[in-house]
Write a structure and sequence with these properties.
With 435 residues, the protein is of the alpha/beta class. The protein is built from 19 helices and 12 strands. Strands 2-1-3-11-4 form a 5-stranded mixed beta sheet. A 4-stranded mixed beta sheet has the order 7-8-6-9. Strands 5-10-12 form a 3-stranded mixed beta sheet. Strand 1, helix 2 and strand 2 form a beta-alpha-beta unit.
């Protein structure tokens, strides 16, 4: 049996086991005159905190919109993705479903079965951080409205140490490297990072550097092999920046052997001036930094590079997950679906979810009661443009080539050009973006 046949069988098996077959698309009124929406949602019902937080959003929605009746079906982890794929093959999707902005649910969003939300988003675009509403489809489509955004690159800065050393945050790569001698002479590490897992350098630094040296359009073309490749100067220059930083002893000693968390410990203990990691470290820093340290910790992006072709001052961003709409929905039912999608990810739902510590995609809703570091991250995301994270748009298997090659390059075993050649060869032969 071929792949399509196996998925069809899986779809039928799922329908039998769950007793649920989503049709979607039609105007469906309940006996009481309400519009019914069938929603397939990603939720771990064993996580009492998250489940209760989500139910609080649902209760608030139903109180405000009694004319819309929500009927949920929940799954979590691989069970969700397996069933979603089976339903897509059987073309039995629900009215609303939980989606990812990248390849994780690309088999569904790229199938023509999901509606482009841009007509609904445009009137409320200013309510969201710019990085949340980056294109998700090849023609600029946005398939799901992100409830949050994740930056994989923040250059956390110890402003107290900078002041102590008579320094200010560098504007350029050259200024940053020049600071290294001063910082090391004072007994501090210039940039705390750990790369023992390999993914950190790719996700939290290289992705941002590639956005600066190449830009979104170039990486889209390189990913697809449309007149660009990962052996181009844009990619090589980003690799060269990492090589120079390593050679100039800007990183933590033992960078490529360090377990994840060691760099943050150095930063928390005032042993490093800068700390490069993802925005998710905010939750840790909010509890591990003293109140005084939090006041003197700022959120920055890597300094300007020579000959930048991408967005100035950009970081690397992964738009968050959110709900999308069945492409068959029209009229009153489509409007009801959007009402829920916007409530969930917009200001009203986000205020409720923020009580759990989320940093929403909506701007300006965190008040003074939110943790200081959470507010700093929200302010950072509100004004910082975003580029792609490499492993969010390229196949994960290719990271097993790129990430070890990055480590080899830093050890001096291979050149940036060789890293680029190895990765391009793998992408050309294997990545789904080239098919």
């Amino acid at each position: 049996m071929n792949f399509f046949g196996r998925l069809m069988c899986a779809a039928l098996a799922v329908a039998v086991v769950t007793g649920t077959v989503f049709a979607g698309g039609g105007r469906e009124e309940a006996d009481d005159g309400t519009v019914k929406l069938e929603i397939f949602h990603y939720l771990d019902l064993a996580d009492n905190t998250e489940a209760e937080n989500f139910q609080a959003v649902v209760r608030a929605f139903q109180e405000k919109h009694p004319e819309i009746r929500l009927e949920f079906d929940y799954l979590f982890d691989e069970a969700y993705h397996n069933r979603l794929q089976a339903m897509a093959v059987a073309q039995q999707l629900p009215d609303v479903l939980f989606l990812w902005p990248d390849k994780r649910t690309g088999h569904v969003t790229g199938s023509g079965l999901i509606k482009d939300l841009r007509p609904w988003i445009e009137p409320v675009r200013d309510q969201f951080a710019p990085a949340a509403l980056v294109p998700q489809g090849p023609n600029g489509e946005i398939w799901e409205l992100p409830e949050q955004i994740t930056t994989t690159h923040v250059m956390y800065t110890n402003d107290r140490l900078l002041k102590e050393l008579g320094l200010t945050f560098p504007e350029t790569l050259e200024e940053l490297i020049a600071q290294g001698e001063v910082i090391r002479a004072a007994g501090y590490t210039p940039i705390a990072m750990d790369n023992g897992g390999g993914w950190q350098m790719q996700s939290t630094l290289l992705s941002t550097l590639v956005e600066r040296t190449g830009g979104r359009e170039w990486i889209e073309r390189a990913a697809a092999g449309r007149g660009a490749a990962f052996t181009d100067p844009q990619f090589v220059r980003a690799l060269e920046v990492i090589q120079v930083l390593f050679q100039e002893e800007m990183f933590s000693p033992g960078l490529n052997q360090a377990e994840y968390g060691q760099a943050m410990t150095a930063f928390v203990n005032d042993r490093a001036v800068y700390f490069i990691d993802g925005g998710w470290r905010t939750r840790n820093l909010a509890t591990e930094l003293t109140p005084e340290q939090q006041k003197t910790t700022s959120y920055n992006v890597f300094p300007r590079l020579p000959d930048e072709q991408g967005q100035p001052g950009a970081t690397s961003i992964v738009p968050g997950t959110g709900h999308g709409m069945n492409a068959n929905l029209t009229g009153e039912k489509a409007e009801a679906a959007w009402t829920w999608i916007y409530f969930f990810a917009g200001p009203e739902g986000s205020r409720i979810k923020a009580e759990q510590g989320w940093v929403p995609a909506v701007v300006g809703i965190l008040d003074d009661s939110a943790p200081l570091m959470t507010r700093k991250l929200a302010d950072f995301l509100a004004v910082t443009p975003g580029g792609y994270v490499i492993d969010s748009i390229m196949d994960a298997e290719g990271m097993a080539v790129l990430q070890p090659a990055l480590q080899e390059m830093m050890f001096g075993a291979i050149s940036p050009q060789e890293v680029a050649r190895r990765y391009e060869n793998w992408v050309a032969a294997n990545d789904s973006s080239r098919r």
